[in-house]
Structures are given as C-alpha cells and as structure tokens.
Design brief:
Length: 483
C-alpha cells in the first residue's frame, strides 16, 4: 500500500455531472482507495464565462449520492486549499511571473484584432490557427514599460521551436508529440485569471498529486503540462488518459443521442450501485467473467493496468441489466423503504409488514426499475379492478368460469396453501377435468391478479393466501359469467 498516492477529480462546474465525468471521478476514487491514498476534489472554474449558478452544489451532491466521498475538497479541508481555483488567483499569477523571470514565458500584447488577422491569413493557407509568436522576442524591460503604461497583456509559455516531447502514459504507453505542433499557449489571461494549463499544473504540484487520471480529450494538452513542469523544475505526476466514451454507433457520446447527465439516469430510477458498476466498466474490466460489482468490490479489484485504450461503448441495455442485478442485491427491508412511498401515492398503506416483505421477495427478481414495483404489485394490496382484455380474449373459454369456481371449492377444502400444495391441487383438478393445467393456470392468474403475466402463479397465490385467492377466483368467475 502506498499511503502517499494522491489523485484528484478536477471538474469545471458547468451545470451537471456528465457520465464521463462520473467515470473519471470513479476511477480516481477507486485508484486512491485501492492504494490507500487520497482522493481530492478540485473545482476548475477559471473560465468565468462558463460559470453556472448552483453547478458546484449540484456536482458535490451527485458525487456524494454516488458514494464517491472525497478526502479533501471545497467543503473538506486538507492542507492544500483552497480547492476552488478562482480562490487561488495570486498563486497562479506568482507562478506566471516566475516563468517570465526564468525566460520560459513572455508577455504578449497582441490585440484580438491582430490575432483575428493572423487567424484569417492562416485559414486562407488552410492551416489551423497557432499564434505567430509575434511578441516572443520583446525584451523584458520593454514589455514591463508597456505594462506600466497601461497596455493590456497576456502571458504565454515559450514552447521550444524544435524537438519533441516523449512521455509514458500509464494507459496509452509511449506518446510523442513534436513541439512544432504546440502553440505558445496563453497561461495568464488579460483578466488576471490563469488558463486551465497553468492552473492545472500549479495545483497538481502544490496539492501533491501523484497520478493524473482524466479523459482522453486532455491528451493533446499533456506535453504543454509536462513542459511547464520542466520549466518550474518540478517532477511530473504519472499521467493516465482514459479511453473515449462512445455511442453504440461508435460516435463520441453526446447529448444528441441520449442522456449524458448522471442526474437524468438517477431520476429515471437507476440505482447508484448500478450506475457506478456500469460506469466502472466503461474502459475497465476485471479480466474475468464477473460483471456485477459493488463499490467495495470495485475498490478491491481496480487497477489502471486493466484500463483499455479502445473507446468504450455506452450501452443502455447493459445498464438496465445491471439495474436489475443491483435491485436483487438490495435487502428486502431496504427495498421496502424505497417502495413504500410508491404505494402511498396510490393510496395503499401497508398494514402487514411481513406480508409486504414477502411480496417484495417475490417481485424483486422481476424489476428493472424500482418504480416497476408500484405498477406490478398493486393487486397484492387491493382487489384487481379490471382483468386485462387481451388475456380474457386469449384464455377465457366458455367453461372457464365453471372451472375456476371448482378450483375455488377445492382450494377452500385444503389445509395447506404452500406453492407446492397449490401446484398439486391444480394438477389434480386438471386431470380430473381432463384438461391441460395451463387451462387453469392462465385464467386463474387473470382472476387473482387481473394480469396476464407475473411471477410464478403458485408462489403468487401462496403469498396472497387462501382466503384472498378463493374470493378472487369466485369474483372473476361471476364477473365473466355475467359479462
Ligand atoms: N477541468 C478539466 C475538466 O473539466 C479537468 C482536466 C484535468 O483533469 O486535467 O475536465
């Protein structure tokens, strides 16, 4: 166990937590917990134009809901705060000035108009925009005079003109990027705010981050960051860039093809356990057949070595399946608390807890979403008001009412009403009537539940109890006869 491992989730609070963000947070969390390290939440809000009211609270709420408790963060002090970048502006400024002093950064006075001109010319030449380094050679003294005279400026990093940067990514392996494709990146903006690149490096260093685990979209930024580490004379953390998230058609996961906010899934009735399990598998797998994992099991098994490079496909069917599996893993008592309000809105109040738990035990295997319970279970608490028409068409024969009356009679006479006893009784009656048992089963299900499908009929009936079953069989026989 390495007690010094420190990782961070560093979202920009732009409104909601994207499932990709949850994956990044989760992998960082799992890596920290697996290695006995610390998981830090840092808020990267240096782009003030993208700020959204309430976004921070929302993000923290969603992370906590998912069970990803951080060790340090905006509302949990370690010794490395503040953990919100907009509260750290003097730190970034000082570091930008240090880079200017040691010749690795420079003041740039280019106006937006001039940069537009440069952009236009480059577009005409069909080149993508990069700064033409117009201010790179302005002597420092001259630059300082211009600033003293009130000229607006930004600070840019001095990327070497030739050579290349090679580094080892923990997931992607060796990555090489030529300096000539890198821009002289702005690191301090004219409003005094740092750009992401400066802030991320300064903070990761000052917060003692040992491993940077983040989405693949940040890979092109990595050489700039590593250059900054070199300029500052600091050791760089290990970098690990996670594979892209893809729609089933292999396009990049986007809002256009479905929900991407964790909250959307939450409000649809996905359990946090299922979402976390699902998201863990977007890029990682345990190397064997197991698919259903609790958070603790994920902590136990997670490693960066088992994170793949290939894009991970977001498959909702899989999420649905996992939701089913995790509903089954919850205790009947936990489910009871989840389901109770769903029944209450239908005017159903539970008077017999033991009976409620038996119903839950019977139905929980059938549920994809918790709210399905509210829909499937009402006949356990009140008489069926109607019988599904399609079922009547399919299963109700002229003799059915009579058969069910007979079944009610037989049930009435038995002592035991276990599912095996019920099965025996029904088979015996079918033999006696010289019909297939299904001729009793389907109409009996309709009669006692009002529905065509549901859990095993014998078990369903034994949970309902003899008296209720007999009463309902008789009621249905009567209703059908007169209809
Ligand atoms: N603030 C960046 C984001 O919103 C974080 C990138 C990083 O982890 O370095 O995704």
């Amino acid at each position: 166990m390495n007690k010094n491992i420190r990782v961070r989730f560093a979202p920009s609070p732009t409104g909601y937590l994207h499932v990709g963000g949850l994956r990044t947070a989760l992998y960082n969390y799992l890596f920290a917990k697996h290695n006995g390290g610390k998981f830090i939440l840092r808020i990267e809000d240096t782009d003030q134009s993208r700020k959204v009211e309430g976004a921070l609270e929302n993000l923290i709420r969603t992370l906590k809901w998912a069970g990803l408790e951080y060790d340090e963060g905006p509302d949990k002090d370690g010794n490395c705060g503040p953990y919100i970048q907009s509260e750290r502006l003097p730190i970034y400024r000082q570091h930008a000035l240090d880079l200017i002093k040691n010749g690795n950064a420079y003041y740039c006075f280019c106006t937006p108009e001039r940069l537009d001109d440069v952009r236009k010319k480059q577009t005409e030449l069909k080149r993508s925009f990069s700064y033409d380094r117009h201010c790179r050679e302005i002597p420092l003294g001259e630059a300082e005079q211009r600033i003293a005279a009130g000229e607006k400026y930004v600070v840019r990093m001095k990327v070497p003109l030739t050579g290349e940067m090679t580094f080892e990514d923990a997931i992607r392996g060796k990555v090489t990027i030529a300096y000539k494709v890198l821009d002289d990146q702005v690191i301090l903006k004219s409003d005094g705010f740092p750009t992401y690149h400066l802030a991320v490096v300064v903070d990761d260093h000052l917060m003692g981050i040992t491993h940077v685990i983040r989405g693949e979209e940040w890979l092109p930024s990595a050489p700039k960051h590593l250059l900054l580490y070199r300029f500052f004379g600091w050791d760089a953390p290990v970098l690990a860039h996670l594979p892209l998230l893809l729609n089933p058609d292999k396009s990049k996961l986007s809002k256009r093809q479905g929900d991407v906010a964790v909250e959307d899934y939450r409000s649809k009735g996905y359990l946090k356990e299922a979402i976390v399990n699902f998201v863990a598998f977007l890029g990682w797998n345990p190397g064997d057949e197991r698919e259903v994992f609790t958070l603790d099991q994920l902590i136990h098994d997670f490693s960066l070595e088992r994170v793949g490079k290939a894009g991970a496909v977001f498959n909702v069917e899989k999420l649905n399946w996992l939701n089913q599996q995790h509903i089954r893993l919850l205790s009947d008592e936990t489910l009871a608390e989840m389901f109770r309000p769903m029944l209450e809105v239908k005017g159903i109040r539970i008077s017999d807890e033991a009976y409620f738990l038996r119903v839950i035990g019977l139905l929980k295997e059938k549920l994809t979403f918790p709210q399905d319970f509210g829909e499937y279970s009402t006949y356990f608490f009140e008489e069926p008001k109607t019988y599904e028409e399609a079922g009547i068409q399919k299963y109700w024969e002229p003799e059915t009412s009579q058969r069910l009356t007979r079944l009610a009679e037989v049930f009435d006479a038995v002592e035991e009403f276990s599912h095996t006893a019920i099965e025996t009784v029904m088979k015996r009656l079918a033999d006696e009537l010289q019909i297939k048992t299904s001729k009793l089963i389907h109409p009996a299900r309709l009669a006692v539940s009002g529905k065509q499908v549901g859990p095993s009929l014998y078990e369903l009936m034994s949970v309902l109890g003899k008296e209720t079953v007999v009463r309902r069989l008789r009621a249905a026989s009567k209703a059908m006869k007169t209809s």
